Amino acid sequence: MIGRIAGRVDYKGDDHVLIDVRGVGYIVYCSDRVLAALPRPGEAAALYTDLLVREDLLQLFGFPTLLEKEWFRLLLTVQGVGAKASLAILGALGPDGVSRAIALGDWNAVKVARGVGPKTAQRVVNELKDKAPGLMAMGPGRATSAEDVVIEEPVLASARAEPLPPASMGAQAEALSALANLGYAPSEAAGAVAQAAQDLPGAETPALIRAALKLLAPKG
Known about the structure:
- Helix content is about 45%, strand content about 20%.
- With about 220 residues, the protein is an alpha+beta fold.
- The N and C termini lie far apart (about 55 Å).
- Residues about 150-165 have low confidence and may be disordered.
């Protein structure tokens, strides 16, 4: 299993990058967002990778963080979601956005991904709602690097971009852990934390916990 590629960018295509690793070129398929963040040809780059094996095909898919790689693998478990759709969802939302959409049950957010219809988007939310908290608890993780070059999450101007940054995944993970320790169910806690993060962009852990507890408090 090839879990990481580090070398120099040879060229970037529409949906993939060729990375030269000591004279051997690896074609790595990436989302639009990840491709845009990669350096220019001739510069060092590194990606975590997932190798998909089919009867007549081997394909490498690349991600800047382990969290994004794990989301890719989890999305593939949903019926009707293949590698192309999984990359499209991650490209449109990023791992943070996917976490929030699933925790909030917001299938309309998933539907904005290219080639993903309403039925598929609903399946993604319904089938992964109880699994999302586990990945949220991972936190963002560190980006992989090549020769001290860190591939960071890009900040792109896009119609799909959010106007304000959400609370960091690290703060969300800590808030999620705190709510779990208080006895809340994972899916219930994840929904409250995601809503709190959306309502309070950039909030730190204590503020997220307070806001989530207010959302979870019995109404009336």
